[in-house]
Amino acid sequence: MELEIYQTSGDEIQHFRVLFLQENNVQFVCNKCHQYGWADTCLFTVDGIRVGYGSVWGTDRREDRDTIFEFYIIPPFRGFANLLFPKFCLISEATFIESQSNDGLLSSILYEYTQTIHAEAILFDDHIITDLTVGGVIFRKRNTNDGMDDESPYVLELHNNIVVSGGLMLNYNMPFAAIYRQVNEPFRRRGLGSFMVQELKKEAYRMGRVPAARCSISNRISKATLVKAGLRVCGFRLKGTIVNP
User: Which InterPro entries does the UniProt entry name for this protein (predicted)?
Assistant: First the structure.
């Protein structure tokens, strides 16, 4: 049996990426790494048959290639994972794995091949429809007269003041859209953040997108805001240091 791994282009493994995204059916945080050229990718073959791929990027600097963030083998050949992964580690010279806990294959590899595992972020998907209200608040698109420092396309207006801004990041795998928002300091802890998330969820669905979000593992306020708006924890962004591949 001959196992081969060699560097390839994103186009060569795109059909495998379609299968990877369909199998997991979640917002994949690192999807944009392929779109923006931040990753290098290797193709895996078994006796000349193309069976999957792996991708690396820089955990701290985009120009580095020290972190495996994607590893996929088609189901009929998945039994070769523990032969292909160590070989991929040696060829890529990666020292870390970053994985979403809702990526079944790579997260299992992470637990098997790394130490110092920790969660860096909490991942959310939509769960329930909420009907939050905040008296006097208007949700609308921003306009040129708002005088905002950021370029967020949506705002909450209260008594002629912009109190929250936010939007949807669309550079993830379809059909997902990532919600973001900023609440001005004097208006925090009034339920405005959750109301903004609720309204942005509606905008995502109107666009034909599925809302999603994430926050730092230590940001309990952000987590509570997202949960109040009907999202739920669906996974974690994990990282570990590779040992003895």
Answer: Acyl_CoA_acyltransferase, GNAT_dom
